[in-house]
Amino acid sequence: MTTKGPARIYQGTPRNLAMLAKKLQAGELVAVPSETVYGLAAHALDPQACQKIFRAKGRPTTDPLIVHLHRIKHLEAFAHVNSTALALAEAFWPGPLTLILKKQNCVPDIVTAGLDSVAVRIPQHPLFRKLLKIADIPLAAPSANPFGYVSPTTAEHVRANLGNRILYILDGGASKIGLESTIIDAREANNLKLLRPGAITPEQIESSLGLTVKSVNSRVEKGSQVAPGMLSQHYSPRAKVILHDRLPSAPTRESSDEAQLYFAKPADKLTKDTYWLDSTGDQHRAAHNLFAQLRILDEKGYRIIHAEKAPAGPYATAINDRLRRAAAID
User: Quick one: pLDDT at residue 2?
Assistant: First the structure.
């Protein structure tokens, strides 16, 4: 799936940021770095610009976009804000938390899949924040990859997948977290719902703010979605992913087209088809490496990936959610 094309990767110099900001203001697409994954950004209030995102990704318009802002004070211009949502924003922004709120009329329907809700967040990545400040516009930005494929965590990942469909990629290094943001439905102040797990956990929200967050079955198979990333099959490599609670510590045979992806490096004899997310099983590094490792296995041409679930830990829910969707498991 390498499609280098005309896309050029730009470093985050003041001159490049000013140029890319003008491109966004003019309705062009720019792939941007974030602490979660790389996003494909467009002017969020320009329906024609946002339509280009859907075309470039092959994304159905039933899958909404996340609107990225520079400052909390801008939130009320795009969403109806309640006291709980404001408390969440003040506690976790800038950061990997997306809030679902009722939208203001200025937000185009194409951004929200025609629904009266909007997904919003303030990113943490310094280059993305600089670009938002210079452009002085809200940016709609889903992951910068073909729809349904593994999310990109480097500028080169973006160019490999979308290089013949876009022109501008801002290089901010490898994404620090490597998993998409946590999504919380905060439309009802007293009824918070977890729609997508990520680096911000319900336990952190409860500990910080004393709020209860309900985990709900967020899978959607048809019709408009209230939040992105809710399909049963998503974040999927070309290889078939088979998910296991645990893989045997020593593979019983070698196979030319089947890989075994452990959470931590196994202690016993390894084969050439043995891979792992982190050598010591560190949860943060494993999350950071997940999508990149799935891409590597795709590039190696494996037909099947036997993947091991993450054990209990701070990122386990988010990692296992992405693995279940990669494997298309309900």
Answer: 47
Q: Which residues, other chains included, contact 186 with Cβ-Cβ below 8 Å and sequence gap of 6+?
A: 82, 84, 85, 88, 99, 100, 101, 192
The residue whose two tokens read 């969403």 is 79
* CATH dotted code for 8-215: 3.90.870.10
Residue pair 49/27 in contact (Cβ under 8 Å)? The answer is yes
Q: Would you state the pLDDT for residue 232? A: 72
Domain ranges of the chain: 8-215, 240-326
Which amino acid is present at 96?
P
pLDDT tens for each residue of 288-314: 999 999 999 999 999 999 999 999 999
Closest-CA residue to 238 (of 160, 176, 130): 160
Q: Tens digits of per-residue pLDDT, 60-106?
A: 999 999 999 999 999 999 999 999 999 999 999 999 999 999 999 99
Distance of alpha carbon 77 from the chain centroid: 24
Do 21 and 116 form a contact (C-beta atoms < 8 A)? no
pTM: predicted TM-score of the whole model, two decimal places: 0.94
Q: How far is CA 118 from CA 27, 29, 101, 186, 224, in A?
A: 20, 20, 6, 11, 12
Q: At what angle do helices 14-25 and 126-135 cross, to 10 degrees?
A: 50
Cα Rg of the chain (Å, integer):
19
| Average pLDDT of every residue of the chain | 93
